[in-house]
Amino acid sequence: MTYCKAYTTVSLGVRGRGLRGRRARTPSRSTAARLIARIVLSIPGAGLAACGDAGPDPVELQTIRAVGLAHLEENRLEEAAAEFGRLVEMAPREAAGFANLGLAYLRMGRLDEAGTAVSRAVDLDPRDPAARLIMADIHLAAERPAAARAALDEALAAAPGHARALYALASLDADSTSAEAVARRTATLGLLATRHPGNVAARVEHVQALLAGNDTDSAASGLEDLRQLVPVFPVEGQDLFDEALRAARDGDAAGALSAVRPFHNVMRTTPGYQRGLRDLRGSGGVLAGLPVVTLGQVVGGGARDAGAVLAALRFTDVTELVGIAPGRGG
Distance between CA 186 and CA 279 in Å, rounded? Predict the structure, then answer.
């Protein structure tokens, strides 16, 4: 029978030390992905709801998804493309499979194939902004900035206020000094800061854009809001912040900007700013001590007997698979 989507979220953490305090060998993400699939999908029917005729093996599909994503994170692009190529053959109605296949092709520089795959993803799920963000990157790689802007506008039409789409749109004007580009970037960053008021990176970039456009009153207000969001700045940034706020209140855009720029550089080193930037750009990789793989399937329901699931659970010893030496007794 065919299986409907159901909610499953799995994380595997590698903390850097194994049993008994011994140094553990960190498994590759592809090994971790296979391990996760083996554990999760060893539960009969876990995360799946039966709903129709025979179809692709859901266990195999989940494994392919996990391994393909792991290869993408490791920048093993040929392997990632092969996995997602298998996935779209087995599940030709799955938009995410085509989007990730296109992403692999994009990183390989195969732009025509990337565009074809991502276009299919957009056709399958027009309301999902993720594929349109990849399409914008394809257009930029092909030096088609107008087409990239159109793709981002479509992403925002599908998901108004989407943080990554807004930031990407603002970034298109980052290198231009024309009054039109500065005004457009400032307005986009202002919308980003309004929609995501807790994002420190968005707040700082908006203030800098306001000063570049000589709007000192709004910049002073933005700096005061930032101080409420981050009550304590790094020591080396406090004087710069005070100088920028003083100059902005005095209407001195050039003086405020000369202080905000180094202040911005200081803020880049703070965890709050880096966290906000990851939300705006997406994670460029997995950091040590964070989950190696996190899988989140968008799901629709499916009632099942909790007792039956519990009865199906079984323990699997994976210490050798992930390279953790078993501890000695005592």
Answer: 19
